[in-house]
Amino acid sequence: MPDTSDVARNMRLKAFKDWNAAQAHRRHRARVAAAAAAVVVLFGLLAGCTGDRPDFITPGAGPVPEGTDARTVLEAFRGRGMMNHLKALQRVADENGGNRASGTSGYENSARYIEEQLRAAGYSPVRQTFSYQRDDETLESFNILADTEGSADYTIVVGGHLDSVRRGPGINDNGSGVAAVLETARWMKESGIKPANRVRFAFWAAEENDFDGSRHYVQELSKTEIRRTAAYLNVDMAASPNGVRSFHDGDGSDFGDAGPGGSEEIEDVFSRYFRENSLPAESTVFDGGSDYGPFVKVGIPSGGLFSGDVERKTNAQAQAYGGEAGEDLDSCYHKACDTIKNINPELLEDMSGALAFATVSFAMAQQG
Ligand SMILES: [Zn+2]
After folding, report:
1. Ligand 1 centroid to 167 CA: how many Å?
2. 86 CA to centre of ligand 1 in angstroms
3. Whole-angstrom Cα distance, residue 40 to residue 90?
4. pTM for this one?
5. Which of 95, 149, 183, 207 does the annotation list as catalytic?
6. Is 239 helix (H, G, I), strand (E, B) or coil?
7. What's the number of CA atoms in the CB half-sphere (13 Å) around residue 15?
8. One digit per residue, pLDDT tens: the chain, 368 residues?
């Protein structure tokens, strides 16, 4: 998550709340429209769906390939190479002045590593370049995007920010999320999963500035492309050393900020993965504080994973997850000490498996 003053944060929260109010209104209108449509269907006058976005696809409704149930996915991710990616990103930071911030050689070399890994797995990554403002400077950077096969009518975007802050190597924030996204991409190819719906893996630039990479991506989408984006799954920190297993509160039942319709299904899928693996987990705020914010603003169902930063661990959390009550979930958040030593490898496995499970659930999901 980026450094933000309280003012900027409150502005974002307000924008998010305004958006939510607009959504509530839209949902009301949609319900009225749905009721009207139901009457029409009753009289046999309407065969298809005429909504302004596709019917949300229901995860798990399609034929699920072997080896993609929650338990088997976790087992697979217990032995996968997320730590190797973090070692590589640490090396990049060490060789580039101690950070991997957007617009620097550390970012460029992080990107080359990701692209090599994606190509070796059989993907064709592309760079999406854009310019953005940082103080008075205009900087240039780029996102990396890589697609699976599958129908573009129900595209599932799965992403995390690749850039670090300037003060440190950003191995938990967000090397860990990057490792989860990359390993999900590799696992899908290796497992021979043929997605019904296209999955677009995304590695965002300049999140630590002002979500510039994900914002640019969403701004570039046409109305049709927005409508065809069935879900966005985000990971911003998945291995906090004193961390927790949490997923965003997509239905707003715990923290009040509900996402666009369909976000509750995303929350459900993450929740189901942890439940079926008997792993304690909880929901966390859905306040627009990471790359899912721009997606939510245009009405794309969103959700994601978070293992915690500057919140203190409660006694209940220490009981559920182990670790130190009263200490920060990540005491090296946005600091020079966010290194490879600032990682909980088991938590990274649990969370990466959760991302892979949710990704394949939506990739194989059917309309309806
Ligand atoms: Zn972050």
Report:
1. 13
2. 15
3. 60
4. 0.86
5. 207
6. coil
7. 13
8. 554 444 333 333 333 344 344 444 444 444 434 444 333 333 323 333 334 455 566 665 555 677 889 999 999 999 999 999 999 999 999 999 999 999 999 999 999 999 999 999 999 999 999 999 999 999 999 999 999 999 999 999 999 999 999 999 999 999 999 999 999 999 999 999 999 999 999 999 999 999 999 999 999 999 999 999 999 999 999 999 999 999 999 999 999 999 999 999 999 999 999 999 999 999 999 999 999 999 999 999 999 999 999 999 999 999 999 999 999 999 999 999 999 999 999 999 999 999 999 999 999 987 65
User: Which amino acid would we find at residue 94?
Assistant: D
CA distance 206 to 215: 10
What kind of fold does domain 6-367 have according to CATH?
A: Aminopeptidase (3.40.630)
What are phi and psi for residue 241, nearest 5 degrees? Answer: -60, -30
> Alpha-carbon distance 53 to 69, whole Å?
29
Q: Which amino acid is at 277?
A: N
Q: What distance lies between CA 157 and its chain's CA centroid?
A: 8
Residue spans per domain, the chain: 6-367
| 75 part of the active site | no
> How far, in Å, from the CA of 308 to the mean position of ligand 1?
10
